Amino acid sequence: MERVAASLKNKLMSAEQAAQFIKTGMMIGVSGFTSVGYPKAVPLALAKSGHAKDLTICVGAAVGDEIDGALVRAGLMTRRYAHQSHKDLRNAINAGTVAYSDIHISHLPMNMNQKTGPNMDIALVECVAVTEEGLYLAASGGTADAAVRTADKVIVEVNQTVPIEMVGMHDIFEIGLPPHARVIPITKPDDRVGTPYIPCAPEKIVAIVMTDREDEPQKFKPTTPETTQIGENVIRFLKGEIAAGRLPENPGPIQSGVGSVGNAVLSCLASSGFKGLSMYTEVMQDAAFGLIEQGVFDFVSASSIALTAENRRRFYENIDFFHDKIIVRPQEITNHPEIARRLGLIALNTPIELDIYGNVNSTHIMGTKMMNGLGGSGDFARNARISIFATESIAKDGKISCVVPMVSHVDQTEHDVAVIVTEQGIADLRWKTPNERAKLIIENCAHPDYRPMLREYYEHAYKTSAGKQTPHDLTQALSWHQRFLDTGTMKL
Question: Is the pTM here over 0.85, yes or no?
Fold first, then answer.
C-alpha cells in the first residue's frame, strides 16, 4: 500500500501551507491519545506563524509538546477538551489563561457526534496512510473518528516513521446516534466489528502533509518496594476471589489506568502464575507490552500503544508478531459502558487521594489545582465487574496522606469504588456500610503514621455528628488539606 493514494497526491503540501486553513476562533479536532498518534508538523507551523488565535483544541487525551506546549506558549490556545498532562498547559489551566472542561473519555466523542458543542471546523489527524476509502491511523484511536466524522474539513499528516504495517491493527466502529444507536457486538477483546480505517470522503480532505517526527516516548518512574507491594496485594486479592469462586481461573479482561503505579501493578502479573489473560483498556503501556511477549496476555484491545523509546523500537521491529495480538480502537468503543459491563472488566485505576468512606479524587491537588483530568477512570469504575483503586498510602515523603477524612474533590463516589489497595493492604468495600468502610480503609490501607489521626477523626465525627450513617465533622473534614497548605505537612 502506498502511503498516499495516487488520486490524492494533488493535495500534498507543506505544513506551513496546510496551517493556513486554520483561522482565528476555530475549533480543531485533533487525533492522538496519551502522546501517541498526534499531528506535529502543522501545529508547529501554526505556533511559528501565530496567524490563528483564540483556538479551541479538542483531543481525546494528552498529546505532546507540539500541541499542548507550543500552542500554549504561543498564546494561540484559549480552550481545551479533554484530558491533558503537559506542564505548560496544566500551568495555563490553573492560571486561568486556558479554559478547560474535563469530561469522561467515553462522553467526549458521544458529544462530538451529537454536535452538542461548538462546530468542528477542522479535523487534524495523523495517519500512516490515506486512501480514497479513508484514513489509516497511526498508533492510537482516540477521538479521531468523531473529529473526521463531524468536521467541515480534514488535514492529514502522514507520519513516515510509523511502520506501514500498522495498517489493519485498527477497528473503527460507528455507533450512530440515539435513538437509533447500534449495539456494539463485542463479546471478547479480540472481536473485530468495524473497518481498519476511518471512512472519509476525498473531497473533505483539503491538505496532506508528509512528516517524519516521532511521538514523544512515555516515561515511567522506577518500580519501588511500595509499588511492587501494591501489585502483589492486587494479585493476592484476585487469587482470593478465584479461590472463593467469585472469579473464574482466567478472570475477565483487565483494564489499567496509565501511569507508574498501574505499570508496576501490571508488572507483578509476570510472576503471578497467570497465563492467557486478556486486556481491554485505554492505553497499552510497557508492562502490558512485556506481558504479551511472556504469554501472560494473549490479546490487548486499547485506544493507544504508549511505550517508552526502547519498547516502541522493539514494537516497530517486531510488528508482525504483535499485529494480530493488539487492536487499536476509538475511545468511544474502548471506554463504552456497554462493553465494560458485558466483558466483566477488572478495572485498576490510581487516585490522587481517597477518603475514609471510599470517595476518590482523581484530578485535583488540594481541591483546586487541576492535575491531568478525569480520563477514563469513571467510565470503567462505574461499569466494571470489580473496580479497584490502588495507590501508595503517602506522598511527598510522608507529608501527605493519600487517605484523608474527606477528599478535597470528588471524581468517583463511594458507589463506584469496590476495592482499595495500598502497600499497606486491601479494603474490600463491597456490601459494606459507610461506617464499615471507614474502619476497613483506616486499618488496612492508611499509613501507620496517619492511622491514629484517622481513627481519632472518625471516632470524634461519629460521636458528634448529627447523622451516624456517614459521620463527619465539617469543621475538621478538610483541615488536613488546610494544614498542608499552611505548614507543608498534614501531620500534627
Answer: yes
Residue 312 inside a domain? The answer is yes
Percentage of the chain beyond pLDDT 90 is 96
Verify that 78 and 162 share a domain, yes or no.
yes
Q: Within a domain: residue 25? A: yes
Residues annotated catalytic, as ranges: 282
* 261/246 Cα distance (integer angstroms): 26
Considering the domain architecture, whether residues 204 and 241 belong to the same structural domain is answered as: no
Residues 438/472, Cβ–Cβ less than 8 Å: no
Which pLDDT score, from 0 to 100, does residue 219 have? 87
What average pLDDT does range 420-442 have in this prediction? 98
Examine residue 385 and state whether it is found in any structural domain, yes or no: yes
pLDDT score at 262: 87
Which grid cell is 8?
Answer: 490524492
Query: In angstroms, rounded to a whole number, what is the distance separating the alpha carbons of residues 70 and 48?
Result: 9
Mean pLDDT of 225-229: 94
Report if residue 391 sits inside a domain: yes
**pLDDT tier for residue 258 given thresholds of 50, 70 and 90:** confident
